[in-house]
């Protein structure tokens, strides 16, 4: 290393000093009365605002949550052992905020915007408060563009639109996170040149891990990197080892980052994984701040906690740039109990839910979607016409299949029609199974579901359906690629395309070899 | 919690009567005296709070201490407070009274910490500056604090006007760190 000359150092020092002004510094202070369990009671700070950031010694920051007659209740974002009774607390005069910008993409940060991936500092110029009011009626417009998840069952029957809030709910180990991660990976297509030419706008993703194991978060990041999805994704990690206040603010911080994209006319997808842990963190804080507990010991405003967060998802009007913020909250249920407090709250707030079941998961139906009780209340408008057309009968077919499935178990003799419904249903269920990390593009989904609902699979043995799907898509790609191209461009199924699909499928059925 | 509300009510009633009767100066001198006596004699404070000592006895103790020194109105007020069984809050009431009186007279208390004793001239200069700046009468109290190295530190309620060398050095340190690459 070259030697550093003393005059270089002094020149730098002088330059830095030149901006330094010797003025009286005015600030407001208070004194810590009591500290422990991640909260502090502060005497003084008489002018402090609710939800203002305050500074404790040793670089610990706190958030003001309670304003009382003679004291202020703060939650600490750092080690409470670093704060002592009698310490001086300073106001920062700014509400808790989050650095936002494109620079955040590809990074792993904590809820305060500080990078935790060891890739150096993030130079953003903009800050947004983490608690922002949701947009009003005037600024919004109905959801109209699709957000493709790449999961056949979801895109066909529970379509999600940009700006929608779709809950992913299920027991532990049912693949809730997998659905969300697949959705993020599938957004890679929206960043391609091809999508640009079809005027599909790119979707920026934010994955917020609340109260999860650090190892799980690391795995998610690795998977996203492996599939090239990290380039347009920010991961906000408030792992189980972080103090409860950080877990509590994490979703709001993520929503603010998403709103930055939305307000700039872009599209964002935010995954809150998961809100039951956030509610638990908030319960912890509330009980420590001595707010009265209500049902399941959650405080009275736990509904507002989630409603104000999810209300921030929106589709902006054209005058405001037409950006969108789609929210995919995740809730973990205990033994499938959706009537617990938090699940019912969030179900009522969101525009539909994707319900995952452990017995389906164990039966090998993955993603383990329960089609019967999963709904999407607004996404239907966003579905492309072609998909709407082919998926119309899918739901009905599957419903009939489920109804008859119970009878079939008795092994009694069944008439021809029933047997046909059963075998078709079984093939459709098989068709909707999908491996993790392998999202399917929408035009392929359309073709496959068309083949499924129109009886082209009926002659294929159940165990061959997966292989048939793979091979028929390859066949289409090689010999009838124009089918995909037209569906992509026109977004609907004309009679001409249908006849072409039929022709190709019949050709393929003749050459398809059933495995023995 | 509600102690605060109670003491505000009693003290403001005392203040209002004093203003009405035009003897605020006298009363506030009495109350100041009581405050210092109570502050210096914790036993007296403890006695006030004790539930074992009879109210009658509490008052007679007060009467004996203060009869010759204070206005009969002040003594009456003490009796009134004791009659109402709020003698445990008497000290809070007294302090609240002093605060309300300062507010009424447009006076602010400023605590000045300095590393070295200020001369009278410096003190007057500082007072004038503050009076001009705040547009209020200022009552200064001084305190020595070697830790701040130099300059002064003024505390006005919860707000601090920090012109100490210690703070300047802290800010300078932050400024340097901001320019360096090692941070983060």
Backbone CA Rg of chain A: 27 Å
The strand count of chain A comes to 17
- Taking strands numbered 1, 2, ... along the chain, how are they ordered across the largest sheet of chain B? 2-1-3-4
Task: Give the strand content of chain B.
Answer: 15-25%
**What characteristic shape of chain A results from the CA principal axes?**
elongated
- Which overall shape of chain B is indicated by the principal axes computed on the Cα atoms? elongated
From the N-terminal CA to the C-terminal CA of chain B, the straight-line distance is: 44 Å
Structural class of chain B: alpha+beta
Instruction: Spell the H/E element sequence of chain B.
Output: HHHHHHEHEEEH
Mean pLDDT of chain A: 91
Distance between the termini of chain A: 70 Å
Describe this structure in words.
The complex is a heterodimer of chains A (516) and B (184). In chain A, 39% of the residues lie in helices and 18% in strands. Chain A has 16 helices and 17 strands. In chain A, the strands form three sheets. In chain A, strands 8, 10, 11, 12, 13, 14, 15, 16 and 17 form a nine-stranded mixed β-sheet that branches. In chain A, strands 1-2-5-4-3-6 form a six-stranded antiparallel β-barrel. In chain A, helix 14 (465-479) packs across helix 15 (481-490). Chain B is an alpha+beta fold. Chain B folds into two domains: 3-103, N-terminal domain of the delta subunit of the F1F0-ATP synthase (Peroxidase, domain 1, Orthogonal Bundle), CATH 1.10.520.20; 106-183, no CATH class. Chain B has helices at 2-21, 24-40, 42-49, 55-66, 72-83, 90-105, 120-134, 165-179, and strands at residues 107-114, 137-144, 151-156, 159-164. In chain B, strand 1, helix 7 (120-134) and strand 2 (137-144) form a beta-alpha-beta unit. Chain B starts with a helix and ends in a 5-residue tail after the last helix. The mean pLDDT of chain B is 87. The interface between A and B is medium-sized, with 24 and 19 residues. Strand 1 (25-36) of chain A pairs antiparallel with strand 4 (159-164) of chain B, so a sheet runs across the interface.
């Amino acid at each position: 290393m070259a030697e550093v000359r003393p005059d270089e150092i002094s020149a730098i020092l002088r330059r830095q000093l030149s901006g330094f002004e010797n003025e009286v510094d005015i600030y407001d202070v208070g004194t810590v009365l009591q500290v422990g369990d991640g909260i502090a009671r502060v005497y003084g700070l008489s002018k402090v605002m609710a939800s203002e950031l305050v500074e404790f010694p040793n670089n610990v920051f706190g958030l003001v949550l309670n304003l009382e007659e003679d004291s202020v209740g703060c939650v600490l974002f750092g080690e409470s052992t670093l704060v002592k009774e009698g310490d001086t607390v300073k106001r920062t005069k700014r509400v808790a905020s989050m650095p936002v910008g494109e620079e955040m993409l590809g990074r792993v940060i904590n809820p305060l915007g500080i990078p935790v991936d060891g890739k150096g500092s993030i130079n953003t110029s903009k800050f947004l408060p983490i608690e922002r009011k949701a947009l009003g009626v005037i600024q919004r417009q109905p959801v109209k563009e699709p957000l493709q998840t790449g999961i056949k069952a979801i895109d066909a029957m529970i379509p999600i639109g940009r700006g929608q809030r779709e809950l992913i709910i299920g027991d532990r180990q049912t693949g809730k996170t997998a659905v969300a991660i697949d959705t993020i990976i599938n957004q890679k297509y929206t960043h391609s040149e091809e999508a640009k030419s079809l005027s599909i706008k790119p979707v920026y993703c934010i994955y917020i891990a609340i109260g999860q194991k650090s190892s799980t978060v690391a795995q998610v990041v690795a998977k996203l990197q492996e599939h090239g999805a990290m380039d347009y994704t920010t991961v906000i990690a408030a792992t189980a080892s972080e103090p409860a206040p950080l877990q509590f603010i994490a979703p709001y911080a993520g929503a603010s980052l998403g709103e930055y994209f939305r307000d700039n006319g872009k599209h964002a997808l935010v995954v809150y994984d998961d809100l039951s842990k956030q509610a638990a963190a908030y319960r912890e804080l509330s009980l420590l701040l001595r707010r009265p507990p209500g049902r399941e010991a959650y405080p009275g405003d736990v509904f507002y906690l989630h409603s104000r967060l999810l209300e921030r998802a929106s589709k902006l009007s054209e005058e405001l740039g037409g950006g969108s913020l789609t929210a995919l909250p995740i809730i973990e249920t205990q033994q499938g109990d959706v009537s617990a407090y938090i699940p019912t709250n969030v179900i009522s707030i969101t525009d539909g839910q994707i319900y995952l079941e452990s017995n389906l998961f164990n039966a090998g139906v993955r993603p383990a979607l329960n089609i019967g009780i999963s709904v999407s209340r607004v996404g239907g408008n966003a579905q492309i016409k072609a998909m709407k057309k082919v998926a119309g009968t899918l739901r009905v077919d599957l419903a009939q299949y489920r109804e008859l499935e119970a009878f079939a178990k008795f092994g009694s003799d069944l008439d021809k029609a029933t047997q046909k419904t059963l075998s078709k249903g079984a093939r459709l269920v098989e068709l909707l199974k999908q491996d993790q990390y392998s999202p399917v593009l929408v035009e392929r989904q359309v073709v496959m579901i068309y083949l499924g609902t129109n009886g082209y699979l009926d002659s294929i043995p159940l165990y061959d359906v997966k292989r048939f799907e793979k091979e028929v898509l390859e066949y289409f790609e090689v010999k009838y690629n124009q089918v995909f191209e037209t569906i992509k461009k026109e977004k609907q199924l004309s009679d001409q395309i249908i006849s072409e699909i039929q022709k190709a499928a019949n050709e393929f059925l003749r050459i398809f070899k059933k495995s023995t | 919690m509600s102690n605060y509300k109670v003491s505000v009510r009693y003290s403001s009633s005392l203040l209002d009567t004093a203003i009405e009767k035009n003897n605020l100066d006298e009363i506030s001198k009495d109350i100041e005296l009581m405050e210092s006596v109570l502050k210096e004699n914790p036993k007296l404070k403890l006695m006030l709070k004790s539930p074992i000592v009879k109210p009658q006895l509490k008052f007679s103790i007060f009467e004996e201490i203060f009869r010759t020194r204070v206005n009969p109105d002040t003594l009456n007020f003490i009796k009134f407070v004791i009659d109402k069984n709020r003698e445990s809050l008497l000290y809070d009431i007294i302090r609240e009274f002093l605060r309300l009186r300062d507010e009424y007279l447009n006076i602010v208390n400023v605590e000045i910490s300095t590393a070295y004793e200020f001369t009278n001239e410096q003190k007057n200069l500082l007072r004038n500056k503050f009076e001009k700046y705040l547009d209020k009468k200022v009552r200064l109290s001084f305190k020595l604090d070697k830790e701040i190295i130099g300059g002064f530190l003024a505390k006005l309620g919860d707000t601090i006007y920090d012109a100490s060398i210690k703070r300047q050095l802290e800010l300078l340190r932050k400024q340097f760190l901001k320019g360096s690459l090692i941070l983060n």
